[in-house]
Amino acid sequence: MAESLARTLCPRATILFCTLASLGNVGALATQPSRMNLSHDFSKIHSVGRETQPRLSLSRRDVSTLVTLGAAAIAVPRPSFGLDVRSGDSGSDAARSFDAYDAYAPSYDALDGGQAATRLGFDELRRSAIARARGDVLEVGVGTGLNLPLYDWSGVRSLVALDASQGMLSEARKRVLDLGVASKVHLRQGDAASLQFADGTFDAVLDTYSLCVFADPETALREMRRVLKPKGIIICVEHQRASGLLGAYQDATAPLVTPMSKGCVWNQDVRAIARKVGCREVSAESSVFGTIVTLILSKN
Asked: In what order do the strands lie in the sheet with 280-287?
């Protein structure tokens, strides 16, 4: 039962539980019979670095359920569907990771999405970021192609959709055919940390919630920068370490959350990684209590 709860929980609803708990909303909501309004007004996100915090609409029963789910997620140290892609760097470790992704590729959409993700605004964050992709585009960690319907195909000349898992790419191929964009999309199996493209190939490189699962995120981002054209942009929507108590909570729970959330390291400093590899930060927008960052990066 606990594994089943954790399977539906991670990683998106884990964030919901943690943000509620860290901000003290669980206790407040549990003692108040009234419901709060839920809204996430993305039309007001313009300024660089603004943190957008949704107001949560939860009853006492909702809160009780979240507490139960959160406890279940932490109580299951290594469910069978999880993987820790940073547990090692041997070929066998990598092979096991790819096999795991292959295995749950058919059910990945349900695992990575759902009502919690939608209500917290993850879908809209993807949509807003992908709207900036133009010209020749590379998407790393394309997975099952969740982002494919969100592209403005009138502005995309070509898209290389890269993933390490052949199972994921098989699912993505179905979306490509359904969308009728097979002439523009090239599905490729490969490693984001060793991109097989020449320097300066792409106008835009897209990463949505993938950098957090890469075994070597610094090398992967350095490779993204390398294949970017001089005036191109890297578009990242990523989990990041929040400030204050929530950040401390992320640090404390990361060893437990990572293996049960598809290897997601949800407390890394993405902006620091970007600076380290030589990217220039064009804009940065934090949301979901600072646990998610949308970054636009340039090559220089």
From this structure: 51-52, 280-287, 292-298, 228-239, 202-208, 135-140, 156-163, 185-189
Q: CA-CA distance, 2 to 246, in Å (whole number)?
A: 24
Task: Give CA angle at 267 (266, 272), nearest 5°.
Answer: 120
Distance CA 82, CA 134 (A): 34
Residue type, 239: H
Q: How far is CA 288 from CA 12, 13, 56, 119, 275, in A?
A: 11, 12, 11, 11, 23
Give the tens place of pLDDT for each residue, 50-76: 444 444 444 444 444 444 444 444 444
Q: How far apart are CA 156 and CA 262, in angstroms?
A: 30
How far is Cα 223 from Cα 2, in angstroms, rounded to an integer?
39
pTM (two decimals):
0.72
Q: Where are the beta strands (DSSP E) in 169-299?
A: 185-189, 202-208, 228-239, 280-287, 292-298
* Nearest one of 220, 216, 226, 211 to 293, comparing CA atoms: 211
DSSP annotation of 39 = B
At residue 292, the 3 state secondary structure works out as strand
CA distances from 150 to 116, 126, 165, 259, 297 (A): 19, 8, 22, 29, 20
Number of other CB atoms surrounding residue 4 within 10 Å: 11
Residue type, 248: A
Tokens of 264: 């997601």
